[in-house]
């Protein structure tokens, strides 16, 4: 087993937690919260998942960047959209930025004043972050075939 393989296993465990957690929230908790108009269901989940979720995202960034460098896709070549592999890494980084924007908006604007009337805005944020996570996973799966 190579070091790259071990790093990849950590990347996959972190992806499982990040994407799995958001799918659980979107498929199980969010519909109940919307149906019952109970924002507290979302807030309780966020509270429990927050530390684990942020840690797993940090692991994804560290391991992902490490593996990209291992494949010769370094900071200098990011966002040049030159080769199939580099293209996927750059799109992943842009999607990561989008995730940060959604997370900052959620923490600053949506979560502090979440109530029955604006719960749909939070639902939009949750579904967007989930869809982005799934897209990152699908993009990642193309890398072993050389990217897109
Ligand atoms: C939500 C965030 C992310 C998710 C869900 C995710 C998911 C995945 C998945 C499922 C794979 C497939 C591994 C395989 O086919 O065996 C993968 C591979 C990979 N990811 Fe990510 N990833 C994320 C973020 C990142 C970031 C931020 C980077 C780089 C900056 C990155 C770089 C890579 C690289 C280089 C590989 C190829 C590893 C290899 O095949 O050896 N990922 N990712």
Entry summary:
The protein has 148 residues and is mostly helical.
Question: What this model shows, in words?
Answer:
The chain is mostly helical and 148 residues long. The chain has one domain (3-145). It has 4 helices and no strands. Helix 1 (3-36) runs antiparallel to helix 2 (39-70) and helix 1 (3-36) packs antiparallel against helix 4. The longest helix has 34 residues, at 3-36. It is elongated. The model has no long low-confidence stretch (mean pLDDT 96). The structure holds protoporphyrin IX containing FE (HEM). Protoporphyrin IX containing FE (HEM) binds next to helix 1, helix 2, helix 3 and helix 4.
Q: Sketch the topology as an H/E string, one letter per element.
A: HHHH
Distance between the termini: 27 Å
- Morphology call: elongated
Domain module tally: 1
Number of strands: 0
In quaternary terms, these chains amount to: single chain
* Residues in helices, as a percent range: over 70%
| Beta-strand percent range | under 5%
Keywords: Membrane, Transmembrane, Transmembrane helix
Protein name: Copper resistance protein CopD
Organism: Flavobacterium artemisiae
Transmembrane segments: 6-30, 51-69, 89-111, 123-143
Defining key terms:
mainly alpha, binds protoporphyrin IX containing FE
Tell me the layout of helices and strands.
Blueprint (H helix, E strand, L loop, with lengths): L2 H34 L2 H32 L13 H27 L8 H24 L6
Helix pairs in contact: 1-2, 1-4, 3-4
The structure holds protoporphyrin IX containing FE.
